[in-house]
Protein backbone atom coordinates (compact mmCIF):
# COMPACT_ATOMS: atom_id res chain seq x y z
CA UNK A 1 0.00 0.00 0.00
CA UNK A 2 1.28 3.43 -0.91
CA UNK A 3 1.48 5.57 2.24
CA UNK A 4 2.41 8.89 0.62
CA UNK A 5 -1.14 9.76 -0.59
CA UNK A 6 -2.58 8.99 2.86
CA UNK A 7 0.04 11.26 4.49
CA UNK A 8 -0.76 14.02 1.98
CA UNK A 9 -4.49 13.75 2.76
CA UNK A 10 -3.70 13.89 6.51
CA UNK A 11 -1.53 16.98 5.94
CA UNK A 12 -4.59 18.60 4.34
CA UNK A 13 -6.69 17.81 7.46
CA UNK A 14 -8.53 14.69 6.24
CA UNK A 15 -9.70 12.93 9.44
CA UNK A 16 -10.14 9.60 7.63
CA UNK A 17 -6.45 9.74 6.62
CA UNK A 18 -5.43 10.33 10.27
CA UNK A 19 -7.53 7.33 11.31
CA UNK A 20 -5.93 5.17 8.59
CA UNK A 21 -2.41 6.15 9.73
CA UNK A 22 -3.35 5.39 13.31
CA UNK A 23 -4.79 1.99 12.35
CA UNK A 24 -1.80 1.12 10.17
CA UNK A 25 0.94 1.98 12.66
CA UNK A 26 -0.61 1.75 16.14
CA UNK A 27 0.36 -1.89 16.78
CA UNK A 28 3.94 -1.37 15.57
CA UNK A 29 4.57 1.67 17.79
CA UNK A 30 2.71 0.19 20.76
CA UNK A 31 4.54 -3.16 20.46
CA UNK A 32 7.91 -1.39 20.25
CA UNK A 33 7.16 0.70 23.35
CA UNK A 34 5.77 -2.29 25.26
CA UNK A 35 9.10 -4.09 24.78
CA UNK A 36 10.98 -1.01 26.03
CA UNK A 37 8.78 -0.11 28.99
CA UNK A 38 7.44 -3.56 29.95
CA UNK A 39 4.37 -1.67 31.13
CA UNK A 40 1.13 -1.65 29.15
CA UNK A 41 -0.09 1.65 30.59
CA UNK A 42 3.17 3.48 29.88
CA UNK A 43 3.39 1.93 26.40
CA UNK A 44 -0.15 3.07 25.59
CA UNK A 45 0.43 6.58 26.99
CA UNK A 46 3.63 6.92 24.97
CA UNK A 47 1.95 5.64 21.81
CA UNK A 48 -0.92 8.10 22.18
CA UNK A 49 1.49 10.98 22.74
CA UNK A 50 3.62 9.80 19.80
CA UNK A 51 0.72 9.95 17.37
CA UNK A 52 -0.40 13.27 18.79
CA UNK A 53 3.06 14.78 18.22
CA UNK A 54 3.41 13.13 14.82
CA UNK A 55 0.08 14.48 13.63
CA UNK A 56 0.95 17.96 14.94
CA UNK A 57 4.30 17.87 13.08
CA UNK A 58 3.10 15.99 10.02
CA UNK A 59 3.97 18.98 7.81
CA UNK A 60 7.64 18.43 8.81
CA UNK A 61 7.67 14.75 7.82
CA UNK A 62 10.52 13.99 5.41
CA UNK A 63 9.53 11.38 2.79
CA UNK A 64 13.12 10.14 2.53
CA UNK A 65 12.50 8.26 5.80
CA UNK A 66 9.94 5.52 6.21
CA UNK A 67 6.89 6.72 8.12
CA UNK A 68 7.12 3.96 10.75
CA UNK A 69 10.80 4.83 11.40
CA UNK A 70 9.80 8.46 11.94
CA UNK A 71 7.05 7.38 14.37
CA UNK A 72 9.46 5.14 16.29
CA UNK A 73 11.96 8.01 16.59
CA UNK A 74 9.21 10.21 18.03
CA UNK A 75 8.16 7.40 20.40
CA UNK A 76 11.76 7.02 21.65
CA UNK A 77 11.92 10.75 22.41
CA UNK A 78 8.56 10.69 24.19
CA UNK A 79 9.81 7.74 26.27
CA UNK A 80 13.02 9.58 27.17
CA UNK A 81 10.98 12.62 28.21
CA UNK A 82 8.77 10.40 30.38
CA UNK A 83 11.82 8.87 32.08
CA UNK A 84 13.27 12.32 32.74
CA UNK A 85 10.00 13.49 34.29
CA UNK A 86 9.85 10.42 36.52
CA UNK A 87 13.46 10.89 37.57
CA UNK A 88 12.99 14.57 38.38
CA UNK A 89 9.94 13.75 40.49
CA UNK A 90 11.99 11.21 42.45
CA UNK A 91 14.90 13.60 43.03
CA UNK A 92 13.04 16.55 44.46
CA UNK A 93 15.21 19.10 46.20
CA UNK A 94 14.17 19.46 49.82
CA UNK A 95 14.88 22.67 51.66
CA UNK A 96 16.36 22.65 55.15
CA UNK A 97 13.05 23.87 56.56
CA UNK A 98 11.13 21.02 54.86
CA UNK A 99 13.72 18.59 56.16
CA UNK A 100 13.25 19.84 59.74
CA UNK A 101 9.48 19.60 59.35
CA UNK A 102 9.82 15.98 58.23
CA UNK A 103 11.81 15.15 61.35
CA UNK A 104 9.22 16.89 63.54
CA UNK A 105 6.49 14.66 62.12
CA UNK A 106 8.07 11.57 63.64
CA UNK A 107 5.92 10.17 66.39
CA UNK A 108 7.72 10.47 69.71
CA UNK A 109 4.82 9.18 71.78
CA UNK A 110 5.53 5.96 73.65
CA UNK A 111 4.42 2.69 72.14
CA UNK A 112 1.88 0.47 73.90
CA UNK A 113 4.75 -1.64 75.22
CA UNK A 114 6.59 1.42 76.56
CA UNK A 115 3.43 2.63 78.30
CA UNK A 116 2.87 -0.78 79.89
CA UNK A 117 6.47 -0.99 81.13
CA UNK A 118 6.26 2.54 82.54
CA UNK A 119 3.00 1.75 84.31
CA UNK A 120 4.43 -1.45 85.76
CA UNK A 121 7.58 0.34 86.93
CA UNK A 122 5.53 3.18 88.40
CA UNK A 123 3.27 0.72 90.20
CA UNK A 124 6.29 -1.07 91.65
CA UNK A 125 7.91 2.25 92.63
CA UNK A 126 4.72 3.30 94.45
CA UNK A 127 4.80 0.03 96.39
CA UNK A 128 8.37 0.75 97.45
CA UNK A 129 7.46 4.32 98.48
CA UNK A 130 4.67 2.94 100.69
CA UNK A 131 7.33 1.11 102.69
CA UNK A 132 8.82 4.46 103.76
CA UNK A 133 7.71 6.25 106.91
CA UNK A 134 4.75 8.64 106.23
CA UNK A 135 6.76 11.87 106.49
CA UNK A 136 9.23 10.55 103.88
CA UNK A 137 6.37 9.40 101.63
CA UNK A 138 4.93 12.91 101.80
CA UNK A 139 8.13 14.71 100.73
CA UNK A 140 8.71 12.24 97.85
CA UNK A 141 5.09 12.74 96.75
CA UNK A 142 5.36 16.54 96.84
CA UNK A 143 8.75 16.71 95.13
CA UNK A 144 8.51 14.07 92.40
CA UNK A 145 4.81 13.58 91.72
CA UNK A 146 3.49 17.09 92.31
CA UNK A 147 6.80 18.59 91.10
CA UNK A 148 6.96 21.21 93.84
CA UNK A 149 10.17 23.12 94.41
CA UNK A 150 12.06 22.81 97.71
CA UNK A 151 10.77 26.25 98.68
CA UNK A 152 7.15 25.30 97.92
CA UNK A 153 7.49 22.11 99.96
CA UNK A 154 8.99 24.12 102.81
CA UNK A 155 6.02 26.47 102.79
CA UNK A 156 3.51 23.62 102.39
CA UNK A 157 4.94 21.68 105.35
CA UNK A 158 5.73 24.82 107.33
CA UNK A 159 9.28 23.59 107.88
CA UNK A 160 12.66 25.22 107.29
CA UNK A 161 14.09 24.78 103.76
CA UNK A 162 17.17 22.91 105.01
CA UNK A 163 14.96 20.39 106.86
CA UNK A 164 13.04 19.73 103.60
CA UNK A 165 16.27 19.19 101.66
CA UNK A 166 17.56 16.74 104.27
CA UNK A 167 14.22 14.87 104.41
CA UNK A 168 14.16 14.48 100.62
CA UNK A 169 17.78 13.34 100.57
CA UNK A 170 17.10 10.83 103.37
CA UNK A 171 13.89 9.60 101.68
CA UNK A 172 15.76 9.02 98.39
CA UNK A 173 18.50 7.10 100.19
CA UNK A 174 16.03 4.90 102.06
CA UNK A 175 14.03 4.30 98.86
CA UNK A 176 17.20 3.27 97.00
CA UNK A 177 17.98 0.77 99.75
CA UNK A 178 14.47 -0.71 99.53
CA UNK A 179 14.79 -1.05 95.75
CA UNK A 180 18.19 -2.72 96.03
CA UNK A 181 16.83 -5.24 98.55
CA UNK A 182 13.99 -6.23 96.23
TrEMBL record:
Coiled coil: none
Keywords: DNA-directed RNA polymerase, Sigma factor, Transcription, Transcription regulation
Top-rank taxon: Bacteria
SUPFAM superfamilies found in the cross-reference section: Sigma2 domain of RNA polymerase sigma factors, Sigma3 and sigma4 domains of RNA polymerase sigma factors
A GO molecular-function descriptor: DNA binding
GO cellular component labels: DNA-directed RNA polymerase complex
GO biological process: DNA-templated transcription initiation
Positions of the RNA polymerase sigma factor 70 region 4 type domain: 124-175
Gene3D superfamilies, per the entry: 1.10.1740.10, Winged helix-like DNA-binding domain superfamily/Winged helix DNA-binding domain (1.10.10.10)
InterPro entries the UniProt entry points to: RNA_pol_sigma-70-like, RNA_pol_sigma-70_dom, RNA_pol_sigma70_r2, RNA_pol_sigma70_r4_t2, RNA_pol_sigma_r2, RNA_pol_sigma_r3/r4-like, WH-like_DNA-bd_sf
Annotated family: Belongs to the sigma-70 factor family. ECF subfamily.
Name of the featured protein: DNA-directed RNA polymerase sigma-70 factor
Amino acid sequence: MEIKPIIEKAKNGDQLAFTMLLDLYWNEVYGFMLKRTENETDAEDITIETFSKAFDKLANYNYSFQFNTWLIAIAKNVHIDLLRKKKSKQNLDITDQEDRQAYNIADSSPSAEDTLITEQNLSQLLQFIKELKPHYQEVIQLRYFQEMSYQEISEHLNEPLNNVKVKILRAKKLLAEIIERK
